[in-house]
Fold Aminopeptidase.
Amino acid sequence: MTTENYRLSKTIHPLHYKLHIAPNLKDATFRGSLEIKCEAAEAFSSIRINAIELVIETATITDPSGTYNANITYDTENEMANLDLEQELPSGAFAIAMNFTGILNDRLAGFYKSTYRNDEDQIVEIATTQFEATDARRAFPCFDEPEMKAIFEISLEVEPEHIAISNGAEVSSVMLASGKKLVNFEPTIPISSYLVAFVVGPLEATTPREVRGIPIRIIHRPGWSHLTTFAVEAAAHAVEFFSDFFGIAYPASKLDLIAIPDFAFGAMENIGAVTFRESLLIVDSANASQPEKERIVDVISHEIAHMWFGDLVTMKWWNGIWLNEAFATYMETLCTDHFDPAWKKWNTFGIYRSTAQTTDSLHATRPIEYPVAHPSDCQGMFDILTYEKGGSVLRMLERYLGTEPTRAGVSSYLRKYSYANAETTDLWDALEESTHAPVRSLMDSWVFQGGFPLVTLKKEGTDLIVEQEPFSFIPGKPEGSAIGEIWSVPLTFRNLDDSDELNTYLLDTTRAKIADSSSVPTIINAKGDGYYRVAYSQELIQEIIPQIHKLEELERFNLISDSWAQVVAAKIDYLGFLDVANALGGQGPFLESPVWAVVAQGLEVASKALGSEKSEWIGDIAGALFRPLLQVLGFNPADDEPETTGVLRSQIISVLGTLVKDPEVIEFAQSTFRSEMSGEATMEPSLAQSILRIIAANGDEADYAFVLDKYRHPSDPIEEQRYLSALSEFTELPLIERTLGMSLSEIRSQDAPFTISKMLAGATSGPIAFDFVANNYEALASRFPESTISRMIEGMAVLYSPEISNRANEVRNFLANVRIPETGKKLLQIRERFEANLALSNRLRSQL
Ligand SMILES: [Zn+2]
């Protein structure tokens, strides 16, 4: 099909929708009526409008000369309806009126049905929307392209006892003769159709909290109001933070944050009516770990950043979705860092950057921005490269330009394009104006080519030389590789003396001298925010390792993370990685969880690759590194310790209880779990995840039964997720099979793809989960939301146990033949990661 057939005519623009919707939750249907005031730039006799899975019963067109019936036909392939007139109407103002019906689907897209169990254990229904990217057309006929901004004036006809929420504030609520309640909402500012939302059903709203004149509420299942305090606090903080940062008032008149029991994504930035997965909004903060709380603050901050960047100013077309999401990711991190500086958010962001670089080290990576003709092509943009790579590249740019000039440029961009649409280059122009730096040429090298460079530092005589080369896990450059050649790298470097002097150098050649060599070792990517990996010559790394205590936390994280990436890429051997890990152990203790997360990852990969034969050897290495840390921290939190210490303790206990199989740690986990089972005591929240992991790794049928019961009757959605995660970590065959079976029935379709993905990654469960997915693929793919299918299969990228080495062709065959709903490079990426990991595990088996 050609692009033109898919695109709307540019000569007709909607201005104002008056939309009335009456859902029937029992029948899972709805009916609606709609009047759209439009402006035609040319005379017309036909209108193409987006609509799919809708029956348009009547359509009339009214202009100053009269009202005319339109003949309705459907172009299902292009998700359009044609409204044809017998006569031609002149350019100018006109209105379309329509009556239509539709279905509330169960695929978590468009206007759909979600359910939960109430206190009487009955299943109750709500109806809710998720429109991005192109599913508004499943709920009402509309001009469903981001540039077709219009005002939306919405009314909902609902059961009298039900709540009704939409983007605008409620202006009136009247009882109808039918016994139903009619709720009218204030018109929105001009917005794109993908940002419209309505939610209806037996839900409750908290008492509004006013921040800068904006009432903030949490909408939730009845009985959960005591679990909303933390979300209100995070939302209030974000509204204030962004109002000040952008220097522009919050662009709507109210803010509702709505917890939806079934939700395909994390959250959705519908203006004034943001929808969330329950576990990303509803929490007992006294019973949550720091990372669980941080995730909630991240997501709330991200969505509220979109109220300005995305909703007030919107991309012209879907190729711009990356900037929308990358910017929100960058802003979320700034905002969370401000919410609680003790969390050291930019250090944990280092982990996200490194995870993005994992995908970006594949020849099957993609440029951040690429042409999008058909809107379905943009589905592939909702991935780690858009969010985490995009956010990292913006952070690197901000550090290069300076925070204040960056803020000023962003603010002027938002002012200039408020209520309208913009393109990526409009932001670069605004930043060039505020900073006088070559922003566009610098960013083009990161945005329009995939991959990133490995920057090597070495001494040559009296010179310090840097060189850049493309980094990849699989060597060479196969045909079709999307990894670029050369980048414009805003390099930072400093000497490990006692001064704090930071030097910068814009490296846009393959090789350059950056300084005279000195007797004090020099590090590059100083301060740690660059989106590149670093290698040092053998001579330099030997100078740096004894000085590792002089690095900042993020620099130390990068040193170990870059070492590990080079092991995966076969650039250094495993013992080189252990050298750095041992230095961390020897010179510390560094009580830094991101750093130790990389060490733990390196040990876990080796353990899985080597299999049971060498598990004791790896266990000894892990024990030598992690036991001293436990001796420093102890099993129980000190009253005055920072929350991040709890994160590290949890990692230590997890490694010691699973990889090392330390009897004392296992006994600690089991006795804590027994107290939880008997109701004597509850688990320390920061340790709950690790304790459950150890229980599952060593657990039996009785443990499983308790975990399952807690999953079914959790105290809040976070606890539900914790216990679900534990269900995926048992290692006895019947228990693995039981959890897999539940993914076809009991586990919500929003969660099950991730449960399977995790089980694919497990050393014991991996091969069993692979067979399960291969044998049940059709059933799984038809049950889960389309956007999550590739997330499920992603777990196959880390199948590399010795058993899988012998069955590699089965995995290759599956990945070569499987069909997934989304377009883009996801499957190619999974295949390449599978091969890279297989090669790594074969190397480790021969080396170690
Ligand atoms: Zn977003």
